[in-house]
Write a structure and sequence with these properties.
- This protein folds into 2 domains: 218 residues, YjeF N-terminal domain (Rossmann fold, 3-Layer(aba) Sandwich); 254 residues, 3-Layer(aba) Sandwich (UDP-N-acetylmuramoyl-L-alanine:D-glutamate ligase), CATH 3.40.1190.
- By secondary structure, the protein is α/β, with parallel strands linked by helices.
- The strands form 2 sheets. Strands 1-9-18-17-16-15-14-13-10-11-12 form an 11-stranded mixed beta sheet, with helices on both faces. The protein has a 7-stranded parallel beta sheet with strand order 4-3-2-5-6-7-8, with helices on both faces.
- The chain is built from 18 helices and 18 strands.
């Protein structure tokens, strides 16, 4: 699903109104009816108190339309207008008067803290104070109202955007922002719904298609892509009946050191589970018996070094190489890595200590083959691209780094982001249980395996991140967040593949 910039969504509104020859009020009615339908479907005439807080702009107009439709359906609705200025948008005024024509109680005007209504934890609150165009923090009694709503512990649904949340910047500490349980947003997700500093404000997010002009939206570049099953399955390459292991590539996993052999075994196992035809492991001599025992499917090659990598040489011709897990960063291993990079031309996957060696010796970045995939966690990323001020700054720095070195970066987080130059792909699978040792090693193996099966490196990174997260979701559903370990993610990769072909509407 495409994520568009707010300016493009605003232009899409104007184009839709022009091309369909409708009024802005009619488009508002369409969008708000979609919100009403979702609420009505869930409440099913349940007579819980519904309290709707409307600003005096178009987001407030949406709230008024939703309130009118709920009243017409017989719900117990109280409408409040957050009267922070005398200015009104025309569509707000139109729908304000429509409420009056119903003969229902006039919306209560809120002008100061003295007007704040009591809100019970059993109330259903609909937030329609500010929309996506907000560009400065809420102040004074309006900020106090937002905090009052948050403190009530009622269920909060935000229309399009939680009030007080910006679409293009991170709120400052102390800013008043609605903490929604659920956000019904129009036409396109918003990037801030998936960033670590702002996602908590939006809660669960549902995108409502309100029929904005398709031709226009197809003509503008998206800010990012949200990757769910629908997008992931488009990347999947089916297997032919008449095939053999050689058709699915030979992956070489290089890493490990004394006491850290388990990491390469996790990567190799995930590589197999994702479908690589052949997997070999290159490790120090101390890992030979361990690896032959724990992953008998793999071939094992040993370095001359007993406890660390000292000179990476082999006679194989692998399709793809993954380097770094458990390798350590000793002077001998660093020199071996530098010498080895000078011999590689094809894209590779670099993780863990491979990243640490690159960040500590940035001249090596020029030796990394173009379109290689780097899989840093947050601290490894910081060492690569430098410290950032906030999530938006992190993305900008990651893009500059990707462009400079022609590399694919995976920004691991609750919503992992794949960055390649100006393209950005936000993963929508995964869970807190995946914050466990070795989960990153598994991800590196999944991506490596896909590249070995002839997926383009960027597609391998995007699909691999999706499958990794989905496998983690299956593991958590059986074992809990606390009960799962990295090997459980690997064990469920097959389920993640099978799930691609399950119709969720059945």
């Amino acid at each position: 699903m495409k994520i568009f910039q707010v300016k493009h969504l605003a232009e899409a509104d104007r184009v839709t109104i022009k091309n369909e020859r409708i009024s802005s009020a009619q488009l508002m009615e369409r969008a708000s009816t979609a919100v009403f339908n979702e609420i009505h479907k869930r409440l099913n005439h349940e007579q819980i108190p519904v309290k709707i807080f409307c600003g005096i702009g178009n987001n407030g107009g949406d709230g008024l339309v939703v309130g009118r439709l709920l009243l017409e359906e017989g719900y117990n609705v109280t409408l409040y207008v957050v009267n922070f200025t005398k200015e009104r948008t025309p569509d707000f005024l139109l729908n304000y008067n429509r409420i009056k024509e119903m003969g229902e109680p006039w919306p209560t005007l809120l002008t100061s803290e003295e007007d704040f209504p009591s809100i019970s934890p059993t109330d259903f609150v609909i937030d329609a104070i500010f929309g996506i165009g907000l560009n400065r923090p809420a102040e004074g009694w309006v900020a106090a109202l937002i905090k009052h709503i948050n403190q009530a512990n009622s269920f909060i649904l935000s229309i399009d955007m939680p009030s007080g949340l910006f679409s293009t910047k991170i709120p400052s500490p102390g800013d008043a922002v609605i903490q929604a349980n659920y956000t019904l947003t129009f036409q396109s997700p918003k990037l801030v719904f998936y960033l670590s500093q702002t996602a908590e404000y939006a809660g669960d997010v549902q995108v409502l298609d309100i029929g904005l002009d398709r031709e226009f939206l197809n003509s503008v570049p998206p800010e990012a892509y949200l990757i769910d099953k629908e997008e992931a399955i488009k990347l999947y390459i089916p297997r032919k009946i008449f095939s053999h292991k050689g058709d699915y590539g030979h992956s070489l996993i290089i890493g490990g050191s004394y006491g850290k052999i388990g990491s390469v075994s996790l990567t190799a196992s995930a590589c197999f589970r994702t479908g690589a035809g052949l997997v070999s492991i290159y490790a120090p001599s101390c890992g030979y018996e361990i690896l032959q025992t724990v992953i008998p499917e793999a071939m094992v090659i040993t370095d001359a070094g007993e406890k660390e990598l000292t000179a990476i040489t082999f006679d194989l011709k692998p399709k793809v190489i993954c380097f770094g897990m458990g390798a350590g960063t000793s002077a001998k291993t660093l020199q071996a890595f530098e010498n080895f990079l000078g011999t590689i031309n094809d894209p590779m996957v670099i993780d863990a200590d491979g990243l640490n060696m690159l960040s500590g010796n940035k001249v090596l970045l020029d030796l990394v083959p173009a379109k290689s995939v780097l899989t840093p966690h947050s601290k490894e990323l910081e060492r690569l691209i430098g410290k950032w001020k906030d999530d938006f700054d992190k993305i900008n720095k990651a893009r500059k780094f990707s462009k400079k070195y022609d590399l694919i970066l995976i920004l691991k987080d609750a919503h992992t982001i794949v960055v390649y130059q100006d393209e950005m792909f936000i993963n929508n699978t995964g869970n807190p249980g995946m914050a466990t040792a070795g989960a990153g090693d598994v991800l590196a193996g999944v991506i490596t395996s896909l590249i070995s099966q002839n997926y383009e490196p960027l597609n391998a990174a995007v699909l691999g991140t999706y499958l990794h997260g989905k496998a983690g979701d299956f593991a958590a559903s059986k074992l809990s967040y606390q009960g799962m370990i990295a090997g459980d993610i690997t064990a469920n990769i097959g389920n993640a593949f099978l799930d691609l072909f399950i119709n969720d509407t059945q």
